[in-house]
Each structure stands twice: as structure tokens, then as C-alpha cells.
Amino acid sequence: MTPACTYRPIMDDSATPILEVANVTKRFGKFTAVNDVSFKIADGEFFTLVGPSGSGKTTLLRMLVGMEKPTTGELRLRGKIVNDLAPNKRPTCMVFQSLALFPHMTVGKNVEFPLAIRGERESERRTRAWELLKLLHLDPNRYYDKNVTQCSGGERQRVALARALAYDPDILFFDEPLSALDARLRKTLQKELKDIQRSTKKTFCYVTHSLEEAMVMSDRVAILRAGMIEQIGQPDEIYASPKNAFVAEFMGEVNLLDITASGGTTAEWDTGRKPLVLNLPAPLDAGTKRKLLIRPESLRFIDPGETAGNTVPVRILNQFSLGSRVQYHVEVVPGCTLTVERLREERASGTDTILGWDLADSQILES
Ligand SMILES: Nc1ncnc2c1ncn2[C@@H]1O[C@H](COP(=O)(O)OP(=O)(O)OP(=O)(O)O)[C@@H](O)[C@H]1O
Question: How far apart are CA 213 and CA 229, in angstroms?
Fold first, then answer.
């Protein structure tokens, strides 16, 4: 496998973007699918658009590749406005979930197709197709003459990527290319895709509804909600400092507590039964309603004599093995549960216990 290189191009204000999206809006009749979206992608960056179903990812991607025109706003490729440029006139290429391979052709001929269109000689086409198949971990001796219809879903996905790379585009766009594959293959291909992006230094713009997938591969991630960007940044930044409860919840299993500030650094936690008084990591005006984010791994079982920023008595309802870690579902009051994750050696003892967390491990978020 090609070793991942450490070069990580990240867009900053001083860099010239390969692609710039400036105040782009797309309306279908009265409905606004993409609403005044702006961002820049750096040359060689792995950039991912992520969001729930209907958030506008595909519409945005279709505009980036030229299949839709923005209602307002500008799309600039290397500084040139391309709003009205047809897809086949753009130096970009799209890899679809539905693959769009030619079923009557062999793997080799599918990969060579873009080279044949460009009029390259047969021997050169073959050499390049062999190189690309090797890059995609498809042994050319086995796959070059195989018909694509005889390939598995994962193999076809690799062929589609090899063919897209054969176009040698400036930017490769991906619309949920791995969503039809089983979880294990998806994880393998995610890592391979990242390695390929690093070794080819191509700009990848990827669309997925899975933030986990986005986090694994991307240099930067833009999170969409209802046609607007909620947050944009490096995966670590987003994980450490989600802008609001939507982003935090979208990242997977987190605990989000409904709180009402009492003034200063205390608040009441609305558990649905009796409110519990909590200490906050920062002061809030009395009466302010917020969410308090605590990650499952930041919660711990408190031994007698041990202290923490907050402690609450809980009852353990269930526990699940996650391999080296154990996940607990604990009840604070009936109907109010929290998720806790601890290392196997830090297992809870007994059913009724005390749970706690340090104030620095909690964050106050807007809803
Ligand atoms: N051609 C169209 N005409 C009218 N409405 C459309 C059209 N295309 C998309 N929409 C609407 O725009 C919104 C965004 O759709 P889009 O396909 O971009 O979302 P998405 O985030 O890609 O969703 P998914 O993950 O389900 O594919 C949806 O409410 C959709 O119904």
C-alpha cells in the first residue's frame, strides 16, 4: 500500500484556492436548497461536505461539477468564473455512488476509456491502466481482461476510481461512493482513498451523510444543515469544539443536557423529573437555556473520597462491550439516561454508583 504522506494542504486566507464558492444560492421554485454558501478549497486538499438527508449536499455538488447552475452567487475554478461552463468543459470529474461503468467493457477498457478519448496510443493506455489498477489494489493480471459485470461492488468502486484518475482531472468529486458497500469494506476503502489522495496530491471533494467517514479521510469538513454551512474546519477542531448542539449530535453518541442557568457558574439540569444543580465550565446569565455537552469518555465512575466538578448518583441499566472499552447506559432518574464509555479495566462495580465529570470536559452549546 502507498504510504500516507504527511503533507496536509489546508485552506487559509493567504492561499490561492483551486475552487471558490462565493455566496452561492440554489432555489427550486420557492424552495431554497442551498442558501448563501461560501467556502474555498485548497489545491491538494481532501474536502468533505457532510450533512443529513435533504441538507443540500448533492445540490451543491451538482453545481460544483456543472450539472446545475446556481440561482445566485459565483463558482470560481482557479479564479475563473465557471457558473455557465458545461461539465465536460471543466477540468473536474465526478465519481458516483451508482458507478456509471460501461457494462459491456472489460475493467481495462473502462479504465482506458478517458485515455482513448484523448487519442493516446494503445500501448500508453495499457501502461497507464496497469499503473492505476495497481494503485487501486486490483492485480492487473487478474482484472485487466475481466468484465466489470463479474466484479464485486467494492471492486467496481475501485475500477470507477481508477477510471476517474485516468481523466487526470484537477478536482475529483465523489457523491457517497461507498454508501452501498458493507461496513468493513467501507472502512478499508476509506483509508485507501485517503492514501490515494495523498499519493496523487489531487484535490478531492467528497459528499457523505456520515460524519465518521468525513472525519477519517478529510483535511477539512463542512457541515451542512438546511442548505447552510453550520461549521467548517479540520476534523479535530470540529470534534473538540462543535459550534452547536446540531454539530455535536451529528458527531455520534454524545450526552447533551438541557440546562437553565441559575446565574454565575451554576445551572439547573432539566432531567424531566427533579431538576439537578450542576456546576458549569463558564458563567451564564440567569435564565439562559443551553445544552451542556459531555462526551461518553469524559464521564467516570467516582470512588469514595474522589472528587469531580459534578457528581450525580446513577443506576447502571446496561453495558455493552466495545472491545477494549465498555459502554454503559446509566439512569439518572427514570426517563433520563446518559452514555458512559470507560476502558475495560475501569469497569463499574455494582448497579448503583456515582458518576462524575471534570468541568473542563464539559462544553456549553447553543441549541
Ligand atoms: N430538482 C429539484 N427540484 C426540487 N427540489 C429539489 C430538487 N433537487 C433537490 N431538491 C430538494 O432540495 C433539498 C436538498 O436536496 P439534496 O439532494 O441536495 O440533499 P442531500 O443533502 O444530498 O440529501 P441526501 O443525503 O438524501 O441525498 C431537498 O429538500 C430536495 O427535495
Answer: 18
Distance 186 CA to ligand 1 centre (A): 24
Q: What is the DSSP letter of 52?
A: S
- CA–centroid distance, residue 69 to ligand 1 (Å): 14
Does the pLDDT at position 63 exceed 70?
yes
Q: In terms of DSSP bridges, do strands 255-263 and 266-269 run parallel, antiparallel, or are they unpaired? A: antiparallel
Which residue has its alpha carbon closest to ligand 1 atom 24?
A: 53
CATH topology of domain 19-248: Rossmann fold (3.40.50)
Mean pLDDT of 311-335: 93
ipTM summary value:
0.97
Nearest CA to ligand 1 atom 8: 59
58 close to ligand 1 (CB < 6 Angstrom): yes
Chosen CATH of 253-365 out of 3.40.50.1820, 3.30.300.30, 2.40.50.140, 3.30.1330.60: 2.40.50.140
Alpha carbon distance 226, 231 (integer Å): 13
Cα-based distances in Å from 324 to 284, 340, 343, 348: 38, 14, 6, 15
Kind and range of the H or E element at 268? strand 266-269
Instruction: Render pLDDT for 206-222 as a digit per residue (tens, 0 to 9).
Output: 999 888 889 889 999 99
pLDDT digits (tens, 9 = 90+) for 116-135: 888 889 889 999 999 999 98
249 CA distance to ligand 1 middle (Å): 22
Mean pLDDT of 108-114: 92
How far away, in angstroms, is 253 Cα from ligand 1 center?
A: 26
**Positive or negative CA dihedral for 147, 148, 152, 155?**
positive
Instruction: Kindly list the domain boundaries of the chain, sorted by start residue.
Output: 19-248, 253-365
In terms of DSSP bridges, do strands 289-294 and 336-343 run parallel, antiparallel, or are they unpaired?
A: unpaired
The interaxial angle of helices 183-200 and 122-135, nearest 10 deg, is: 120
Nearest CA to ligand 1 atom 10: 33
